[in-house]
Write a structure and sequence with these properties.
- The chain is of the alpha/beta class.
- Among the domains are: 260 residues, Rossmann fold; 254 residues, Rossmann fold, CATH 3.40.50.
- Helices cover 46% and strands 9% of the residues.
- One of its GO terms (biological process) is rRNA processing.
Length: 795
């Protein structure tokens, strides 16, 4: 949170500033204590309340000027340091109802960075914690205390190094408890306020143990604020939070409020959804839900839709299958098993979009403010009426109109409608025309047949849905035995219903069914990292039960017989390898130098069709046998074959009728000739260029050989030296005797060797012989040269 710049002041000025600030705060405190609660109904603006200027400035800059009912009735009570238990309809502005008094309390307490954490806000989901943090940083930018956000999926070390300087801490129960256990500098002894947003969700069994551990480390003298759209009156739950004479505030459609302490006579659970939200439901078989959802999306392509399902596996399966089928609207997914960066990115992207569909679990069912949502589709029945209210509350917020559609199975209709009626929720029944409904069972079956991974997702979605039904408390609504498993599996594209293992455990231990249900609920809300840590020893190694190998998800996938269409073949192959393992190892050792080892045993290679496999001794034959391009070149063009009903192959022309060919045979012939003519013309050009290149290369090689031969003859002929005068006077005419035969054909005689300046032909030799020229050998030593000189002088 931004802080003011500290200007250099004198001691006298600082003293005067503190005196004026204390005087200002004391005046506000007197107004709070003397405030008449009966005049609250007549106040509509934040500036009508005794709130500091910095807080009012932050509210005004973010367009928070007028107050809602829950804000009007809770701010003054919170400023008087009373414990509050408040319930108000969704989208009524509960976030500001506790943030404003929280900031004012810290301002009056003169909190600084050295005081540590003085206010703690706990939320059930990460998305809600991020939203509260963003609102607090906007409206509290002119105050001088800091706020921090601690949620799972973020850097724990980074949070731990800075948590001691945070005055307002916002986080989820799991991460706050982790900091209490592991962060040395995290101190809560100076805590002034505890806020539980969506308190009924935090107080249920999903966070019971975690919240008990957090409350045990908090100072007992603190102010507690509990806010939610649906509130609990359980004495045990309220005693756990240590509420002292709480002020009950229940905002209904008729703005029925209680400003003082009471005995809890208000029906806190009867808070309806906003009036501008249209409520409707339809009854459909379980196996028809995906058809209805697909038809709904195809007819609402220009709307912003949120689809709620009961488990993250269903979210993943519906998202992947619908993404492949392409309904025509942008699809997004959000569930608790995603990484934190992906969750935040998806939330921001969906909030900024105008026409899209978000498939999600109840992770965004509470408190999340997503603007301009047109439709809420509750594909799976919520666990209770309160969850229904929270889901529906994502639309119709702050006076905007919205629609909510609930899809129930025939066994769920009577029981759940009775629960809604007890909450005074008016909902009307709709009927879907069969001609408006589109079937996608066959498309899903085709997708699962082609993609084994998608089929595996379908199996997990099937299991997670029935597990979510099995652990529900309200057995009058969720009648497990009346859900058609086989038909539901078929609607997901599966060939059969997977085996539900937890039913066998419940059947074998009928007395411990409730314990099994409670255990499954705890695992559903437990962090997976904590579960993995519990399965490791002191050295961090995984503890294996009964010396069994740790199985991966792929091992589990292949162990299921109905996982893939090739499961039977896979089992046969693995069995053969286990039986013949030693034999294969021996064969591999003997064939280390071989290129390949054939392990398949269910067929024989047709060597007549693959002649290259007969002899793999040469590199050329080896390359030709292993290369697709080389092997295809020897076989010519590929053939297109067609399979008949019995699985036999046929040429394409076998299925073409003679009448269809006669009409087009002339055109086909003409087209064939034209194509062949063009092809031959191109080949002629290529052949001519190739022939020309070969002829030039042959000529170049002939000249090179001739040049080498002449050089060799020159080396052999160097042997005689004549006098310089005679050689110069009797040099032969080189131009007349030299001829070039480079342009003659291949059968021409070899070129005549050109004469050098020291060589003489036969005629010249006769002339020199007549002149008594003495031929001598070339002198090799100095003595030979002196003898030669003497002879020449004597002659």
């Amino acid at each position: 949170m931004a802080k003011k710049h500290n200007h250099v002041l004198t001691a006298k000025q600082r003293k005067e500033h503190r005196f004026q600030n204390e005087k200002y705060l004391n005046g506000l405190q007197e107004k709070i204590e003397k405030f008449d609660m009966h005049t609250v109904k007549n106040l509509d603006r934040f500036e009508d309340f005794p709130i500091t200027e910095n807080t009012l400035k932050g509210l005004k800059e973010n367009s928070f000027v007028s107050m809602t009912d829950i804000q009007r009735n809770s701010i003054i009570s919170a400023l008087r340091k009373n414990d509050i238990l408040a319930a108000a309809k969704t989208g009524s502005g509960k976030t500001l109802a506790f943030l404003v008094p929280l900031m004012e309390r810290l301002v009056h307490e003169k909190v600084t960075d050295m005081d540590g954490c003085c206010a703690l806000i706990i939320t059930p989901t990460r998305e809600l914690a991020v939203q509260i943090f963003e609102v607090l940083t906007k409206i509290g930018r002119y105050n001088t205390f800091g706020c921090g956000l601690v949620i799972g999926g973020k850097d724990f070390k980074f949070e731990s190094e800075r948590i001691n300087k945070i005055n307002i801490l916002i986080g989820t129960p799991g991460r706050i408890l982790q900091h209490m256990d592991q962060s040395v500098n995290f101190e809560l002894s100076n805590l002034k306020m505890l806020v539980l947003d969506e308190a009924d969700r935090i107080l249920d069994m999903g966070f019971r143990k975690t919240l008990d551990s957090i409350l045990a480390n908090l100072p007992p003298e603190r102010q507690n604020l509990l806010f939610s759209a649906t509130q609990t009156n359980s004495v045990k739950d309220l005693a756990r939070v240590s509420l002292v004479n709480p002020v009950y505030i229940n905002i209904k459609e008729d703005i029925n409020t209680d400003h003082g302490n009471n005995n809890g006579n208000n029906d806190n659970d009867s808070t309806p959804v906003p009036q501008q939200l249209s409520q409707s439901y339809i009854v459909a078989p379980l196996y028809d839900k995906l058809n209805i959802l697909w038809s709904f999306l195809k007819t609402h392509l220009s709307c912003k839709i949120i689809v709620f399902v009961s488990s993250s596996k269903q979210v993943h399966f519906i998202y992947e299958t619908f993404r492949k089928l392409q309904p025509g609207i942008s699809l997004m997914k959000l569930h608790g098993r995603q990484k934190q960066t992906s969750r935040i990115e998806t939330t921001m992207k969906f909030s900024a979009s105008n026409k899209s569909c978000l498939i999600t679990t109840d992770v965004v069912a509470r408190g999340i403010d997503i603007p301009a949502v047109d439709w809420i589709v509750q594909l799976d029945c919520p666990e209770d009426a309160n969850t229904f209210i929270h889901r529906a509350g994502r639309a119709g917020r702050f006076g905007r109109s919205g629609n909510n559609l609930l899809i129930l199975t025939p066994s769920e209709e009577d029981g759940f409608i009775k629960r809604l009626t007890s909450k005074k929720i008016d909902i009307k029944k709709l009927n879907i025309k069969n001609n408006k409904k589109k079937q996608i069972h066959q498309q899903l079956q085709s997708l699962c047949f082609k993609d084994p991974e998608l089929k595996y997702l379908g199996q997990r979605a099937f299991m997670s849905y029935f597990k979510s039904i099995f652990i529900q408390k309200d057995k009058e609504v969720f009648k497990f035995d009346q859900y058609p498993a086989e038909e539901f599996a078929k609607s997901l594209g599966l060939p059969g219903a997977p085996k539900i293992k937890f039913l066998n455990k419940a059947a074998n231990n009928s007395d411990d069914t409730d314990k099994l249900i409670n255990r499954m609920k705890e695992l559903k809300n437990t962090n997976r990292q904590l579960i993995n840590l519990s399965k490791t020893d002191e050295n961090g190694e995984v503890i294996e039960n009964n010396d069994k190998k740790v199985r991966t998800k792929y091992d589990k996938m292949f162990e299921r017989k109905n996982t893939t269409v090739l499961s039977e073949h896979y089992i046969n192959m693995t069995n053969d390898r286990e039986k013949d393992g030693q034999q294969e190892e021996q064969e591999e050792q003997e064939a280390d130098d071989d290129f390949m080892t054939i392990k398949r045993k269910d067929h024989d290679l047709l060597k007549d069709e693959i002649p290259e496999l007969h002899d793999l001794s040469s590199k050329r034959s080896l390359k030709k046998a292993t290369s697709k391009k080389q092997s295809a070149s020897s076989k010519g063009l590929g053939k297109k074959l067609i399979f008949d009903d019995e699985g036999n192959t046929h040429e394409v022309y076998e299925f073409i009728k003679e009448e269809d060919v006669k009409d087009n045979i002339k055109d086909l012939k003409k087209e064939f000739l034209e194509n062949e003519t063009q092809f031959m013309q191109k080949e002629d050009i290529t052949d001519k260029a190739l022939a020309k290149d070969k002829k030039l290369e042959k000529k170049r090689r002939r000249q090179e050989l001739e040049r080498r031969r002449l050089e060799e003859e020159e080396e052999e002929s160097e042997g005689t030296i004549e006098s310089e005068e005679e050689e110069i006077s009797e040099l032969p005419d080189i131009d007349e005797d030299f001829q070039s035969e480079s342009e003659e054909d291949d059968e021409a005689p070899p070129l005549k060797k050109p004469k050098q300046w020291f060589q003489k032909d036969d005629d010249d030799m006769d002339k020199t012989a007549q002149k008594d020229v003495v031929e001598i050998e070339a002198p090799e030593t100095l003595e030979d040269l002196e003898a030669l000189t003497a002879r020449l002088i004597n002659n």
